[in-house]
Write a structure and sequence with these properties.
- The structure is a single chain.
- This protein is mostly helical.
- It has one domain.
- 61% of the residues lie in helices and 0% in strands.
- Helix 1 crosses helix 3, helix 3 packs antiparallel against helix 4 and helix 4 packs across helix 5.
- The protein is globular.
Length: 143
């Protein structure tokens, strides 16, 4: 149980903290580009089966980078652990975007809320200060 909670916190911290790391997108859909080569074998898990790995918005690529970076170091390429991590990262991003869009009237406000969660995670209390609904998104993706 403690290991699962640590995993949830680690994914949340790394993923959201990386979101603002390059460029300054103003929406979930800007600055499209390819996934890094290291992540392409896991594109279906990270993006969904129907998405193009060469046309991924910057904020999504940054989220993937933050979420997957430790896994690429810790786990063997193609391993079940890395595939499971990619699935959790994809689930977390999709869930967080859906949540922010469901509680705000516009995509711009949803993106702003997403950025606010990113800033919260960078604060001292980080994950502990997040909205419980956001914590639940990360937790639900661990199953």
């Amino acid at each position: 149980m403690m290991k699962k909670q640590l995993s949830i916190v680690l994914i949340a911290l790394l993923a959201l903290a990386a979101c603002g790391s390059s460029g300054k997108p103003q929406s979930f859909y800007e600055q499209r580009g390819p996934l890094k080569e290291d992540y392409k074998p896991y594109a279906a898990e990270l993006l969904g089966a129907d998405e193009n790995s060469n046309d991924v918005p910057l904020v999504h690529r940054n989220f993937i980078e933050g979420c997957m970076s430790v896994g690429l170091i810790e786990f063997e390429e193609g391993s079940e652990q890395l595939i499971n991590l990619a699935t959790r990262c994809g689930c977390s991003y999709a869930g967080l975007v859906r949540f922010t869009q469901s509680v705000t009237p516009t995509n711009e406000q949803a993106f702003k809320l997403f950025e606010d969660y990113d800033k919260q995670l960078k604060n001292e209390n980080g994950f502990a200060s997040l909205d419980d609904r956001v914590k639940d998104i990360f937790s639900s993706c661990q199953s």
